[in-house]
Amino acid sequence: MTDEKMDETKKKTKKTAECCGFPVSIFFIVVNEFCERFSYYGMRAVLVLYFRYFLLWDDDLATSIYHAFVALCYLTPIMGAIIADSWLGKFKTIIYLSVVYAVGQVVMAVSTIHDITDTDRDGTPNNFTLHIALSMLGLILIALGTGGIKPCVAAFGGDQFQEHQSRQLNTFFSVFYLCINGGSLLSTLITPVLRAQECGIHTQQQCYPLAFGVPAALMVVSLVVFISGSGMYVKTDPEGNIIWAVCKCIGFAIKNRFRHRSSAHPKREHWMDWANEKYDKLLIAQVKMVLKVLFLYIPLPMFWTLFDQKGSRWTLQATTMSGDFRAFILQPDQMQTVNPILILTMVPIMDRIIFPLIKKCGLDFSPLKRMTVGMLFAAMAFVCAALVQIEIDKTLPDFPSSSESQLKVVNMFNSSLNVTISHKDTLLIDSLESSAGYVTLDHQEITVSLNSSGITKNFSLIAGGRQTLIIPSDPSVMYLKEDIKSKPREGRNAVRFVNGWTAVLNITNLESNLEPTVISNYSLVAQGTRKFVLSNGAQSCEFSQTFGFGSSYTFLIPSTLFSTDCKSIKAVEDIQPNSVHMALQIPQYFLITTGEVLFSVTGLQFSYSQAPKNMKSVLQAGWLCTNAVGNIIVLIVAELGKLPKQWAEYLLFASLLVAVSVIFSVMAYFYTYIDPAEVEAQIRSELGFEPEEEKKKETLEMEDKDKDQQNEQEVKQTKI
Ligand SMILES: C[C@H](N)C(=O)N1CCC[C@H]1C(=O)O
To answer: Basic and acidic residues compositional bias: what residue ranges (predicted)?
Structure first.
């Protein structure tokens, strides 16, 4: 045996330090994963807000770029796997790509410092191009890093286990998943709080640099932890350019099959056997194993398509619900933290109680069955989401269709008015009151007549819009103002004021002073009791209003404002607060998380256990790719298909997933589980290669011989 070969075999049979039956090196790997996921999910938690409120992109662009980024993060694992399995090995790939990742996070954090381009010191950046360029560069580096290392870390963790530790290996994947979710939970709680702080050199702004800087620091910690374990790892070397060899082998099999397509040539058991002429049996067997699993993955993206809507559709659903839990207030996007919290409790329960119980009952709950059941749970979660949506829809205002217009009338005149719209609808409105709700009209050109004064005016309404007609103290100058026609974002409340006082007013929360007879633009206020101070320079008074979630109010300020100490201000409710409670989303979160434990944790283990030794990262990457495709489907669905009713869309997704899980269960039925190591050993022995066990024994014997020789020499030297 050559020295090189001996070194390699020694590496493979290296005894690792153990603690409670687990390799000690695993500790560094799970801590590394915890920090990395903290970094990834922490950054993701504030990314859309950064796009929306720092770069000032609109909602559509912000969500599209966000989903495109997530999809990229799950596509780059292919690159990481190729580098690891064919070139650098998993250990070096993790280190190099972690450096790229950490640099990306730092670039991203720098891009969020508004002071770097805020030359006029007004609090907003002056060179958006630079911020956009830096953040895109940062995101690309992050996607390369996080995706690149992801298949390697899981597979590298698996590599640390010896053959006798197969039970511990399964536990490892569960612990690994717990660490992912521990990191995700902490970071999604912490980074939004960091963002809400104010910071800056010249002007104080929302502290995005801190919200992105802490994840960057955690990525550096992750790298340091991983390097610290360096001396303890089992590092398997890549066996040449395996991916290229696989591609060539598949290409040759297809070409050869095509060349021998006539019936004169006998059929072969498997189409890959057409590569027999040129490639060795071992490689062909390995390719067959990988292809079999990859084929099985084809239906899986549908699970992720539903799963990933937690962050988009379900969060939007939460914005139309009430988050008042009495002891605490939950914001709509915080509802997502229910997922990692449930993962942290359910993985141990499943592992320790449910799975052993199922086994005790003599039921066969094989990995592919678990994954099928996982998909059905996710489908049930969407049925629940549809039911909740139906409840919410009952409480939502009737917003106008695209051909309709809605009109509300506010009377700031000093006496009641009879307002007739288009000679048809007559509304009697008291002074400092509004019409009860909105009048829906199926035409846009209207005539408004104030019957007592004989004033008549024509207006053109916005099709599909909501507007308020303000009749000021001088009714002849009545005018229209556009209203919001959807629930205010993030469960906040939209407020505006009509100034019926005789002079300019300054009102807290409003961007600028309010002229007499004018209605202000909306400003958004959070849930809770809010205080408004109104002043004209000489006098001031304050009033408070308690807000729920997702309401809209117009406050009518009378001419008697200061004499009544603000008490005469009239609140008109344009959109009622959300009344369906966010707790109703818990069942759907519970079901999707149960689905995730059954589907995702099992899929991770399955991808490792069914892969040949030299293609572990490749199959992990294939598994992660199902997630990328799922995200791309979300993107396409968001752009194209919009069903008129949200609950119908939820049901459509649920039915699609049920259909896909039936297909998957049929495919799974025909799949036979293998032990890749055994298959490889068998082929090796058929081909007359030295079996691994023999190699091990030989290495140990060589080591013993080396030691004996050393001892002999030492004895000789002492004698001399
Ligand atoms: C946070 C999720 N519960 C979760 O653990 N994941 C979602 C996609 C896969 C997995 C992850 O690796 O982040």
So the answer is: 693-720
Q: Which residues pair with 405 in a beta bridge?
A: 441
Per-state percent for the chain, helix, strand, coil, to nearest 5: 60, 15, 25
The candidate with the shortest Cα–Cα distance to 139, out of 55, 198, 25, is 55
- What's the CA angle centered on 269, arms 266 and 275, to 5 degrees? 80
Measured in Å, residue 601 CA sits from the centre of ligand 1 at 9
Residue nearest to atom 8 of ligand 1 (CA): 627
Is 280-397+578-689 in the same CATH topology as 22-238?
yes
Atom of ligand 1 nearest to the CA of 593: 3
Q: How many angstroms separate the CA atoms of 441 and 360, rounded?
A: 66
Distance between CA atoms of residues 208 and 187, nearest Å: 14
Distance 35 CA to ligand 1 centre (A): 14
Instruction: Using pLDDT thresholds of 50, 70 and 90, give the confidence band for residue 713.
Output: low
Q: What is the spatial distance between Cα 583 and Cα 334, in angstroms, rounded to a whole number?
A: 12
Model confidence over 575-585: pLDDT tens digits? 999 999 999 99
Task: Output the CA 164–ligand 1 centroid distance in Å.
Answer: 29
Top mutation candidate among 33, 181, 594, 602 for ligand 1, by most atoms within 8 Å of CB: 181
pLDDT > 50? residue 220: yes
* Residue 490 Rama label (left phi>0; alpha psi -120 to 50; beta): left
β-pair partners for 496: 554
- List pLDDT tens digits, range 532-555: 999 988 889 999 999 999 999 999
Domain 22-238, CATH class in plain words: mainly alpha
Q: Using N-to-C axis directions, what is the helix angle for 128-159 and 25-49, rounded to 10°?
A: 150
Task: Give residue for tokens 């000679």.
Answer: 423
Q: In whole angstroms, what is the distance from residue 580 CA to residue 562 CA?
A: 38
Q: Give the residue extent of every domain in the chain.
A: 22-238, 280-397+578-689, 405-575, 690-719
> Probe ligand 1: pick from 44, 184, 339, max atoms within 8 Å of CB?
184
What is the atom index within ligand 1 of the atom nearest the CA of 150? 12
**Looking at ligand 1, which atom is closest to the CA of residue 184?**
1
Second-level CATH architecture of 280-397+578-689: Up-down Bundle (1.20)
**DSSP H or E segment with residue 612:** none
Question: Whole-angstrom Cα distance, residue 593 to residue 335?
Answer: 13
Residue 380: both structure tokens together = 């049930």
Which ligand 1 atom sits nearest the alpha carbon of residue 600? Answer: 9
**Which atom of ligand 1 lies closest to the CA of 304?**
8
425 bridge partner residues: 421
Nearest-CA residue for ligand 1 atom 12 is 180
Ligand 1: centre distance to CA 296 (Å): 21
Q: Is 339 in the pocket of ligand 1 (CB under 6 A)?
A: yes
The answer to whether the CB of 82 is under 6 A from ligand 1 is no
Rounded to an integer, the average pLDDT of 439-465 is 90
- Centre of ligand 1 from the C-alpha of residue 464, in Å: 40
For the stretch 669-686, pLDDT in tens is 999 999 998 888 888 888
Instruction: List Cβ neighbours of 447 (8 Å cut-off, separation of 6 or more).
Output: 421, 422, 423, 456, 457, 458, 459
Q: Which structure tokens are listed for 188? A: 């999604």
Q: Which atom of ligand 1 is nearest to the CA of 596?
A: 3
